[in-house]
Amino acid sequence: MAVPSRRVPSRLRLATVVAGLLALLGAVAAIAMAGGGGDDALPVPPTAAVLEREAAAARRPDPAVPEARTRRFDAAAALRLVRDQVAEGQRPSGSERLARVRARLVRRLPLGRTEPVAGHPGLRNVVGRMPARGSGRGRPAIVLAAHYDTQLAPRGFVGANDSAAGTAVVVEAARALLAADRRERRRAARDGEPAPSRREVRFVLLDGEELPPGGSEARFEQDGLRGSTAYAAAHAGQLGAVAVVDYVAGRGLRLPREGQSDPALWRRVRAAAARVGVARAFPDATGPTIIDDHVPFLRRGVPAVDLIDWSYPYKQGLDDRLRRLSERAIDATGETMVDWLIAERRR
Ligand SMILES: [Zn+2]
Who's near 117: CB < 8 A, 6+ residues apart? Predict the structure, then answer.
């Protein structure tokens, strides 16, 4: 989800009340689920035929988003991974559906494994990594993160952009970075040089970003953000920079700097966007301040940015579906993250 940290504008109050009632219904369903019903209380996932149609919609041209000039990130594969997650339907923390998704995600990340979320039995973050080399071993690690759970409410919410897309960007960025690293090492070996020093990169898929049953949107930072809070508590001292991707694949994508994102780190991300030719999707502007998974890292003094398109019209609703995404948008984000990680590993 992620919530704005400002007061809610008055015209949104009714929507908030309605959302609150839906949240209550969702919580009742979740409690029923926790009561031994497995995932039986969750709504039926979208059919393969529906997903096929929606995937075609996501591949339609999106002229408002600039086309990247690099070809490191596989946007088609990323969209397939969004579809793979959405095919499970609504997949809140603790559900069997999310456990199935998690098992597949672990296998896709380099050195992938899971890590318990302290204080929240049953919740697990998924962590992959590319180890440091040479003098990079003494330097703090870089993190690319997204959450992989979905909201409990409204019932039927599938979270294509929030955050199956962010999750897919993390996984496919890892694959692209690994390929770039292999090329680099081969080149060094051919030239009879040692592989260059590089910092460690971690690919972190966070559980429990969304509110648990009975959680309050007014207390989102305390009730939500469970995976990132635990990860930051355990590892902040090892980290030098964190980028969180959330709402990064909507049609017409725009990612201004989120209000509390670290300005210096943001400038480096934006420089990467310019290098891959998609600066227009990263306007030199500041958007709203959002409570999201970057906050626990900022609280512990780790420079962090949240890439989030708060103008996405379908956020937190039933229409946050595959058909609202665009291949070109996820590519712009993915290519930018890969270029940023390549540069950041050398710092
Ligand atoms: Zn989210």
Answer: 123, 124, 125, 207, 208, 226, 227, 230, 231
- What residues pack around ion ligand 1 (CB closer than 5 A)? 2, 162-163, 246
Q: How far is the CA of 193 from the centre of ligand 1 (A)?
A: 43
Helix runs in 59-164, H state only? 75-86, 96-108
The alpha carbon of 162 and the centre of ligand 1 are apart by a number of angstroms equal to 4
Residue 39: pLDDT band with limits 50, 70, 90 = confident
Q: What is the pLDDT of residue 193?
A: 95
Three-point CA angle 41, 146, 54, nearest 5°: 60
Mean pLDDT across the stretch 106-119? 98
Q: Which of 220, 139, 199, 205 is nearest to 173 (CA)?
A: 205
Question: Is the pLDDT score of 192 beyond 60?
Answer: yes
Mean pLDDT of the chain: 92
Nearest Cα residue to 174 out of 73, 277, 246? 73
Q: Is the pLDDT of residue 28 over 70?
A: no
**CATH number for domain 10-346, candidates 1.10.760.10, 3.40.630.10, 3.40.50.300, 3.90.190.20:** 3.40.630.10
Entry pTM: 0.91
Mean pLDDT for the stretch of residues 107-119: 98
Judged against a pLDDT cut of 60, whether residue 296 lies above it is answered with yes
Which residues, in sequence order, are CB contacts of 70 under 8 Å at separation 6+? 275, 276, 277, 335, 338, 339
pLDDT score, position 236: 98
Write the DSSP assignment of 155-206 as a string of letters.
TT---IIIIIHHHHHHHHHHHHHHHHHHHHHHHHHHTT-PPPPB--EEEEEE
What SS3 state is found at 82?
Answer: helix
Name the helix (H) or strand (E) containing 141: strand 141-147
Q: What is the pLDDT of residue 58?
A: 98
228 with 117: CB under 8 angstroms? no
Q: How far is the CA of 41 from the centre of ligand 1 (A)?
A: 22
